[in-house]
Amino acid sequence: MATAFSPAAQPPRPRQGPTPLFGAYGIVKRFGSFTANDGVDLEIRAGEIHALLGENGAGKSTLMKILYGLLEPTEGVVTHKGDIVQLPNPEAARRLGIGMVFQHFSLCENLTVAENIALVMPKDLSGRALADRIAKLGIDYGLHLEPDRPVWSLSAGERQRIEIVRCLLQDPSLVILDEPTSVLTPGEAEVLFSVLERLRAEGRALLYISHRLDEVRRLCVRATILRGGKVVGACNPQEETARSLAAMMVGSAVREVTGRAGGTVGTERLRLDRLTLPAPGLHATSLRDVSLGVSGGEILGIAGIAGNGQAELFAALSGETRAPDPDAVRIDGAAVGGLGINARRRLGAAFVPEERNGHAAAPLMSLSENALLSRYPTAPLTRLGLLRLGAARDLAKRVIEAFDVRKAGPDPAAGTLSGGNLQKFVVGREILAEPGVLVINQPTWGVDAAAAAHIRQAVIDLSARGAAILVISQDLDELFEIAGSIAVLHDGTLSTAVPSGETTREAIGLLMGGSGDAPAEPHDASKAVPHAH
């Protein structure tokens, strides 16, 4: 590892106050000609929750990977209690007491919960003893898991829980959390906040990365702000507003999302009619008598706690799961229940799944190749039956420019983008297709405030051009900002959709927990209030 300081050198002095538990000084990380971190200094003290803020591509994840031993810095040093340390791998970081909760889950799909956790635990802690520890921690912290369930059968929220439990079982002195609430419901997030406050009170240090700035203001009293790989400021988040924090991150004021007040609703373009589907796996959720309709110019929001059928509903809408009755799913009046995703795309539909890596995008393929994958069903073909790759490159370039996708190189692999930038690319790819129907699951998962506003505005603008849009989201603030009507999916059953201006977060929260409304009657788009805020 090339460093600015050798292990025998005098450690850097703290910038202020007592010696920090962990420090990073002069951190530079280059990938070829691209500099992800440029002279970054960071100090983390015991008993504090320290926020690391920055827009997508600012260098936050790179810095965290250096602290966790996943990357070696090109220059600079990391210190522990004032001493320079080497972190050649995550095992070395864990031995020093560093634990990390990843934004992108580092889980093996075909292993069980307990087997995934065992991968990073001492070899003498396995089997029943490990299962008992998992159960006890779940009780103590309110993070329930079923040790014997395979990971492939779990929702995104349940997978996030594994990452948190796996980290806490290592008894860390520093916990790094990268967008930990991005797939959690409000109730699950409250449980996490209680856990974090408890860890802080125990004297542990926490480094908190989040684009949800109200969370940062609630939890943190110190924040370091990155922009373009450099530290550009520091503050006490509790003395700032969410808008001022966002402006520090992006270097300018973040625009507000605006929509039409009382715009015209057109004809119905998407319909589910009493759709019933058995659970596709042992731990999946059956859909029961689900009915809804979305008209042109309308955005219908679907709220719900992770694992209540959102993935199954998306698969039924996209054509990844076929309905037994073709008439159960209709796009612009055509019965498509028995058709696959390509046939539905040819009818003018577009789809953004929840998991961007592997489902929405092939991580080892370039951005232009990923654009090609989603467009070949509808694009003109060459004489050889192949879409011109040049057209795909043009599309990728348009998406990159329109959605400000930050990247290294002209056409990099999708997996090299930060999570937020890949999300912008995937959403932009589908919106720029100008679909008549758009189904989008967790549209702003893991993106910064400016990018979230851009995506939400693009969704609203698409609906204003006549598209029917169905948004599945666990972010209630998001649904109330962009959706004209909101329904709740609980245990595979959909509630009656209500205009967002005529309900509250508390009422929606009760439905998410299974209280209140009965199963839905078909949603009447003519009674909706488009884009209520």
Automatic annotation (TrEMBL):
Pfam families from the UniProt entry: ABC_tran (PF00005)
| UniProt entry keywords in alphabetical sequence | ATP-binding, Nucleotide-binding
Q: Where is this region: Disordered?
A: 512-533
The GO terms this record gives for MF are: ATP binding; ATP hydrolysis activity
**What InterPro entries does the record tag this protein with?**
AAA+_ATPase (IPR003593), ABC_carbohydrate_import_ATPase (IPR050107), ABC_transporter-like_ATP-bd (IPR003439), ABC_transporter-like_CS (IPR017871), P-loop_NTPase (IPR027417)
Q: Which residues does the UniProt record annotate as the domain ABC transporter?
A: 22-253, 270-516
Tell me where on the tree of life, at the top rank, the source sits: Bacteria
Question: Can you tell me which family this protein belongs to?
Answer: Belongs to the ABC transporter superfamily.
What name goes with this protein? Xylose import ATP-binding protein XylG
Q: Which organism is it from?
A: Methylobacterium bullatum
